[in-house]
Amino acid sequence: MEIFGAEVFSTKSVDWGAATRVAGAKMTLIYLMMFLVLSTNGVAQFGEEDTNKDTFYISGKILVVAKKMGRPPLKNPHPDTVKRQKRRAKRKQEIQHHQQLHHLSHHPINKPTTSQEQHTQRRSGRPRGRESAATTSSSHPPPSQQATASQEQHTKRRRTTNETKDEVIEIENRLERLNKSSVKTIKAQSGDIYDCVDFYKQPAFDHPSLKNHNYNFQTKSSYRPKVMMNEKETPYKGRQASLKSGFKGKSCPIGTVPIRRHTKEELVRAKLFTKTYSSRISPLAPEAEGFHHAIVRTKSNPNKKYNGASTSASIYTLDNVTGSQYTSGQMTTQNGDDSIRVGWTVNPTLYGDHKSRLFTFFKAGGLSCFNTMCPGFVIVRTDIPLDDVLPETHPGVIPQEYDFFVYRDRTTRNWWLELGIYNIPIGYWPSSIFSSGLKDLATYIDWGGETYSPVGQPGPPMGSGLFLKGSTRYDAYCRKLTTINEAHDPEDAKNTEIVSIDTDFYVAKDWGFVGESRRLMTYGGPGPR
Questions:
Q1: Domain limits of the chain?
Q2: Which of 86, 315, 318, 522 has the fewest other C-beta atoms within 10 Å?
Q3: Any bridge partners for residue 490, and if so which?
Q4: Of 465 and 291, which is predicted with more confidence?
């Protein structure tokens, strides 16, 4: 029988006449009941207390009084009581664990009580026999030196989120910066939601070096290189993909810019992916595990520098890119650790789908990210989303293509991005965000394809997904390979080389100067199966 936390057992049946609860919740020893034991004279006669056995003798019958929880248990407790104690201890543990997880997920800034402290408290309050306790204390190190099984399980559950306390704070701050109040919302044809955010409140200006900027939504490049044309050149028989198809003719109001709306889960995935991507992507370094390139690049020359580059690149739809794989067709402008990449990609980790999209990526010292997921790129266009979904294109037909142009402004030294056959300015990377490399001119340019797949898994397709057939109807290509020299004049790319390590799966070919395509390269492959 249990009253006020104390338990009473009798080793022999007693005829109970009446029971009176005499309790003190804060007393260390609770005397629970007095029994009127019938005897010849009708008086209960008490014997002396046996301090070794925690018992009182009452007229030859034994009344065992257990103290509050925390004392070692009786040697032979009632089975129902043992089950009750186990259920209570288990429930208490579940409640504490649930409260800890709830606190961590909803209040990540406050440090919760550690699993170690909670487990130590539970162990100290759990009753056990003297002999068992002595054995346990001698055979196990203190909790501070060895985690218990429940601790390890809890730690694993926390680690599966891949978010430390600082990372959680960073993600929440970034989400707040991205999803700012808007004056208009546009649902793109792809289903993505874009918020029309005030130009001065866009994520770029959260960068420390841009706090006191003097840019505005009418900012334009002070000078751009002329488009290089051959007098005998005929228009290329390709299809220019529409830049405005994503918004279906809609646009943000003047003075605002479109920012794709993100969820916390998207930013967590993007952060983890970007961390891996930015640490291994350098085409100047040996091929990292899982990464594959098939590119044409400028040869290393310390006396050669570039104010930009451009190309017309075909785009393709690739449905069989899954999990943490990605594939892309791109152009890279780089100097040291600073780099800018533009092109098209299929990246389920980054976007949560298998669609071909426009993308930009920059690395400036220790900062790197895609599109506008971190401060840096300043958008000036109101009707062309930076990470728009591209129209479907499959091998065997006249391909659709995009023009990509990245160049360094002669006066401001900002790096501008222009898209399309009419070279529409989309925005720019201010020179002040770069650590050292791209504050100056670029020293390296490349064009072509790149893929990634975890080690031990089949590789994703590259380009059109086919081995090269020698036809731009089937092969992914970059044509009009152009560099901008130190005098800000465009030149056909020269002094280049092919880099393709895994030629059994991915191949690149430099065709040189080919008619209206000018400098042409093709790339692609099905990837390892």
A1: 1-77, 182-524
A2: 86
A3: 484
A4: 465
